[in-house]
Here is the input.
Amino acid sequence: MAADNASSVTEFILAGLTDEPELQMPLFFLFLGFYMVTVVGNLGLITLIGLNSHLHIPMYFFLFNLSFIDVSYSTTLTPKMLMGFVAKRNIISYAGCMTQFFFFCFFVFSESYILSAMAYDRYVAICKPLLYMVTVSSQVCLLLLLGVYGMGVLGAVAHTGNILFLTFRSDNLVNHYMCDILPLLELSCNSSYINVLIVFIVVTIGIGVPIVAIFISHGFIISSIFHISSTEGRSKAFSTCSSHIIAVSLFFGSGAFMYLKPPSILPLDQGKVSSLFYTIVVPMFNPLIYSLRNKDVKVALRKTVGRITFS
Here is the structure.
């Protein structure tokens, strides 16, 4: 019965980021620019890693996948968001909404776990450098990647399953620029504390477990850095980790702020602004953070540009 009622809602209307008419076009061009930087930056990093053999090591294997995840989930959300700035009513079908929500969850959970895999890689590289090639072998990297995308699928299935059998009011206005779980629960007729509890548990596993793993890894890393005798060695180790710490702080900070606070503390209108950070800003900044502060990537970029210029 619930499934029949849910399927009777054939479409949703996305409220968008703001209903102020004078802001629509400036915001359209602003976020179009962000999206173009995101796509060019992440595809550029993927291309650089693919073309330069000296980057075919575990650290850049994970960075390659981080860029793939970033450009994918930005593409899942941003084009529909841009449409909302120029269309009178930004309509999305029920099936389209569930599909967007599934892939959004898949890529966000995958990003959480790829960041924890990258933290583990840095932990082994700095704390156990002599065992690095054995501990982080190609087989281990593939197993870690399988775990990353496996957790992405599990998180997406859990969240989407939590929504699929809900019924929705005829006033089908989703108070967001995308199909996200909290505004969909707010729109539902029969959501209960069980649904909210499931959200909290799934988000805790998706954010909490990687955060704990990352904190433990960086705790060991910082301890090892202080035991490095040379100033140059300490500086290089800190430089290696600082980019990762910045990326992790941006992603998990904004995500936790959105999902791990009660709606009474963070209203959905403010939550939309918070969600901009991990859906728009983080995918755009990740390639800049990892390339501008990374000597190997700068060298690879110079070589690639040199080869193109010479040919």
